[in-house]
Structure formats: C-alpha cells, structure tokens
Amino acid sequence: QSALTQPASVSGSPGQSITISCSGTSSDVGSYNLVSWYHHHPGKAPKLMIYEGSKRPSGVSSRFSGSKSGTTASLTISGLQAEDEADYYCCSYAGSTTYVFGTGTKVTVL
Amino acid sequence: QLQLQESGPGLVKPSETLSLTCTVSGGSISSSSYYWGWIRQPPGKELEWIGSIYYSGNTYYNPSLKSRVTISVDTSKNQFSLYLSSVTAADTAVYHCVVLVTAIVSFDYWGQGTLVTVSS
Known about the structure:
heterodimer; A: 110 residues; 6-stranded mixed sheet; 3-stranded antiparallel sheet; B: 120 residues; mainly beta; 7-stranded mixed sheet; 4-stranded antiparallel sheet; 53% strand; globular
C-alpha cells in the first residue's frame, strides 16, 4: 500500500484556477469512486473538502470541485483566494476497509 | 456535531508502547454510522492512515503497521484507544483521532492532534 502521488507544490494568483492531481493504482483510485480531499493548515485539524470523488460537504465552497480519470483523481480550485493557501491531501479507499493518503500538495497563492 | 479530543503521553521511549485515547462527545461510540480511527503525520511527511474500529468491534489496520497496532473501544466511557508497540523514532508524529462517516466513506471529523515524540 504505497502513498498516492501528488505534486509537492502548486501555485496561482488570486482569481486563477489550479488543479492538483492524485495518482494511484488499479488497487485504489482506479477501482473505487471513493477519493476524498482534505485541506490542512499545519497545527489544525484537516477539513474534508470533497468526498466520493466529486461531492462537496455542506458548507464547502462551490469553488472546489473533484474529478477522476482512470487511476488519477484531481481537485480543482477556481477563483483562488488567499484563504485557500494550505496543504491539500487526497485519500482513497483501497479495499478491505483500508485507506491510503496522498503525498500532499502545498498550495501557494501568489 | 461530533467532537474528538486526544489524550496521552507526549513522550515515549524507544521499544515501549505508545498509548493514546480519544474521547468522543456529541454522539455515541456505539453508533453504526461511524468508524472510529487514527491517522498520523510524522514531521514534514504526509498523513498516514493507521487503522479503524467499528462499533461491532471489527478492526482494520494499515498493513504496514498491522503487527504493532491495536485499536479498542470503551463504550462505557465513549472513548477509543490506540496502542502502538515497539516504537522507534520513526513513530514520532502528530496523531489525530478521526471519524469515518460510513455514508460518505470519508473522514469528516478530526481531533486537533497530539504530538508524540519517541526518544530516550
């Protein structure tokens, strides 16, 4: 069970859109539509932003959207805002009630 | 709204057993709607799922940690606990207790996290 692969960092200017990829395998991302995304400020509790690949929990801005193609999931943040600056992690169900996280992406708002 | 609070020693000696407890408020640990679990983050590294327990007592562990991990539930205290044996410096991390909501298969509730350092 290896960590899902994410870019170490992604940056964008306010108002722009950015996309974070999350590359897995046929044993996790590719087999289940159960990828979730978390926003994490170090020292705080991570927050769920997307579940089941593309669904937003109540209270999460519509600027956040998720998708999947094959063994790669993606999180897109549109209309980038300063408050979006944080670490982002994907997580996939990996079968047999186990889960695997991504390597994490630091989003910087320029 | 579930709230979680981790407690336990912040310093553990190498080869000993790390023990943490998570106290749950705002809901019952006997609920079939949730899995109760632990996730950790070593300094400068990514999040790592450690394991989960269901109200039935069924446990599920990360294969890489399975030989050293035990998660248990105390329904009388509305708490669940993590035990990680034979720790080394590589087990130094912030440990979060978490709730996986079965309906959405995602970790929707997190404790603030507690730093556990393994050092002599």
